[in-house]
N-hydroxyarylamine O-acetyltransferase (Citrobacter enshiensis), 281 residues
Amino acid sequence: MTPFLHAYFSRLGWSATAAVNIDTLRALHLHHNSTIVFENLDVLLPREIQLDDQSLEEKLIVARRGGYCFEQNGVFERALREIGFTVRSLLGRVVLANPASMPPRTHRLLLVELEGEQWIADVGFGGQTLTAPIRLQADLEQKTPHGEYRLIQENEEWILQFRHHDHWQSMYCFDLGIQHQSDYVMGNFWSAHWPQSHFRHHLLMCRHLPDGGKLTLTNFHFTHYQDGHAIEQINLPDVASLYALLQTRFGLGVDDVKHGFTEAELAAVMSAFDTHPEAGK
């Protein structure tokens, strides 16, 4: 086992034997979603987000922080590759908000080839991210621990959708073209620096739970969902409450010298956001 895998498994609290099979892929996918939180705090601090292996390991594994798709799927891809999986990153265009024109490629996801089949894995799409790999097969409704998904195909393009109540909602579209590190660097820079990027205007956080629930945070508004229903909602009254909740409910590391942050630093970020109960809805 490589030193990175040892640290990664320890971070996930995963002690089973890793093998190149679908059971390991499914188990690691869910453990990753349940442990390494989706969050965009570095965009708001602001801190530059680096995508090299060492930087991602230091932040997400050692410092126990989270991150967004370029970081999350970067770490997951490395772990799968070091286990022995055949895996590579793809880039998608996010269409969740039904944009008027086609957006740029700003979402990183993974293509895994296993025993003659192709699978899509993705631990980095926030509240609607996959929590299990799905087969790269058109029009097949596939269940995960946190919802039902399907892929539809239009020529060379694939579209990932999730079942939202009584209809299917598109999340992002992608093709299987080869991508390079420079493509992720460009998409990451756009996501972090484009003035209209939603990552620049809201604190966003999500942690999926092993029991099918999930925890979400938008600015000062915290929600615990179970079976698609909100069973707990809190409008946090102040930054001190927020700082505590990040640690207790999301398990976020705050003490690392480089990647941690103080309550005062968080307060400076959150000063742009209203604490009114409607702010996070």
